[in-house]
Amino acid sequence: MTSTPMPAPTPSTPVTPPSQAPTDAGFQTGPLVDPAQAKVPGGTMIAIDAISKWYGDFQVLTNCTTKVSKGEVVVVCGPSGSGKSTLIKCVNALEPFQKGQITVADTKVMDKATNLPKLRSRVGMVFQHFELFPHLSITENLTIAQRKVLGRPKEDAQKRGLDLLARVGLSAHANKYPGQLSGGQQQRVAIARALAMNPIVMLFDEPTSALDPEMVGEVLDVMVELARDGMTMMVVTHEMGFARKVADRVIFMDRGEIVEDAKKEDFFGQPRSERAQQFLSKILQH
Ligand SMILES: Nc1ncnc2c1ncn2[C@@H]1O[C@H](COP(=O)(O)OP(=O)(O)OP(=O)(O)O)[C@@H](O)[C@H]1O
Ligand SMILES: [Mg+2]
Known about the structure:
The protein is of the alpha/beta class. It contains nine helices and ten strands. It has helices at residues 84-91, 116-122, 138-148, 154-167, 183-195, 213-228, 240-246, 264-269, 274-284, and strands spanning 44-55, 58-69, 73-77, 99-104, 107-108, 123-126, 201-205, 233-236, 249-254, 257-263. The strands form two sheets. A six-stranded mixed β-sheet has the order 6-7-8-3-9-10, with helices on both faces. The chain has a four-stranded antiparallel β-sheet with strand order 2-1-4-5, covered by helices on one side. Strand 1 (44-55) and strand 2 form a beta hairpin. Helix 3 (138-148) crosses helix 4 and helix 3 packs parallel to helix 5 (183-195). The longest helix is centred in the C-terminal third of the chain and has 16 residues, at 213-228. The relative contact order is 0.18. The model is unreliable at 1-29 (pLDDT under 50). The structure holds adenosine-5'-triphosphate (ATP) and magnesium ion. Magnesium ion binds at residues 84-85, 205. This is Glutamine transport ATP-binding protein GlnQ.
């Protein structure tokens, strides 16, 4: 997709004042996940094998190894600067790494033969900032990559996009522009947009940390539903309530290393490392 900025026409419809805002359609029943991707026991979906990465002389990741099985939800936490974002960006090759290997399904991420646009089209990514195209309507945001990257016909792309918009409770907003939606609503659109590509895994990097507190819940609700539908997910977040509810495992990173990689029950029960214990006690104070 091109990053050339395009002139952003001013949306013709004024922002609806909150008192008159159409209420969200509410969560529809039905899976968020393509049934073909639904939970099937076993099978490694993401294998991160001894990766190390440097920015110049600075080593940002040191010998990181972990696996995410199909249908598994892995929460990644740790102090600021510990390498969480860098690690998940390596999974869809947004960041190169110098040592080790990452395999997504059967595709080796750093292999010269790998078709990166194709890999990225199957690895959904949701960032802290929603990064919707401001000059495109919500429907256009939901369909553009389906059409340009996957070559889906317009009608099919629209059907899939609008279906997912309904699933995240936002049918009423299909013709609006991103700037007319709240942060929480925009983030739900960003999730729907990623799902529209039929991803085999979803990566989230602090998807709720830029939101006003009252909007965090609606985004987490969509993510919980997605997890329960069997999506394979790697989620960088400090929302420990979410981790307790749906994570299978928790990875704790510090200074570029995976210090702890434990089942949720073990991590919250008694983290092994002192660093994880200190981190948990700090964030759980609030
Ligand atoms: N492009 C870059 N060039 C140089 N150093 C970088 C670059 N991006 C990140 N870093 C450094 O790499 C380290 C890890 O950064 P990263 O963003 O992965 O941390 P993080 O755990 O996601 O932190 P946060 O919780 O603040 O988001 C930090 O010390 C950061 O300053
Ligand atoms: Mg980060």
